Amino acid sequence: MNRVQVRFCFLPVALLFACACCTSAARGQVYEMRTYTTNDGKLDELNARFRDHTMRLFKKHGIESIGYWVPTDAEKSKNTLIYIIKHASREAAKESWQSFLADPEWKKAAQESGVGRLAERPESVYMTAADYSPSWTNDGNDDDDVFELRIYKAAEGKLDALDARFRDHTIDLFSRHGIKSVGYWHPTDDPDSEDTLIYIIEHDSPEAAKESWKTFGQDPDWKKAARESGVGRLAKPPISVYMNATDYSPIR
Predict the structure, then answer these.
(1) Could you read off the pLDDT tens digit of each residue along the chain, which spans 252 residues?
(2) Distance from C-alpha of 225 to C-alpha of 135, rounded to nearest angstrom
(3) Where does the record locate the signal sequence feature (predicted)?
(4) Which of 35, 126, 198, 248 has the CA that lies 20 to 30 A from 5?
(5) What domains, with CATH codes, occur in the chain?
(6) Is the pTM of this model over 0.85?
């Protein structure tokens, strides 16, 4: 796996967990976040292919669909799909992809979809859920909700301290300020497994996101937790991508 690289201002490599349970209760479970960039005008066809064929064929081959999103950025909203799937193990992932790609039904759907070749090779990162990653339900969501993908790179030797801060303080403080935690993961492959935290949160609206981040940053409890956590400065500024769930996404 290549080291995380920043793409179109948001995605360092190309994340969730089962809707009912985000924690990896079964040993070996891995999540895979994939990012597809279509040629101009082909995103609708790609979404139709996932909606009408791909998700069903994923299930047939042991791949669990978790969530599908399109960035809200004006340009990326025209050609980018980010999705997360789950495998029983890394070995199972390899076998599932092989059988999926060899499936005649998939080949027919791909050929007839009108998507053609992607503009860029799919990006993929395998991940495991952090031990504090919460359960998730779709209760109370509406069309104004917006998801936010964030990627943190800790300074050398500080990932455990960053995890502790999220586990013991940040998630509760997010909730206090109207930010819903969806899931938290670490890449499985070195060197990113040593310093990277990837997470998704949800806001009631883009306007609510702005207000929540403002009040969160001003919260004295957050300032105290940040100061005492031992995390220090991140190795790089956090990367953030706002996204809308597709109409066929299990997580919405």
Answers:
(1) 344 443 434 444 334 333 333 444 345 899 999 999 999 999 999 999 999 999 999 999 999 999 999 999 999 999 999 999 999 999 999 999 999 999 999 999 999 999 999 999 999 999 999 999 998 878 766 677 999 999 999 999 999 999 999 999 999 999 999 999 999 999 999 999 999 999 999 999 999 999 999 999 999 999 999 999 999 999 999 999 999 999 999 998
(2) 24
(3) 1-25
(4) 248
(5) 30-128 (3.30.70.100), 146-245 (3.30.70.100)
(6) yes
**Distances from the Cα of 233 to the Cαs of 3, 17, 87, 217, in angstroms?**
20, 29, 34, 15
Place of tokens 């490599």: 13
* Distance from C-alpha of 192 to C-alpha of 77, rounded to nearest angstrom: 27
Cα dihedral angle (171, 177, 180, 186), rounded to 10 degrees?
Answer: -40
* Closest CA relative to residue 56, chosen from 115, 112, 118, 100: 100
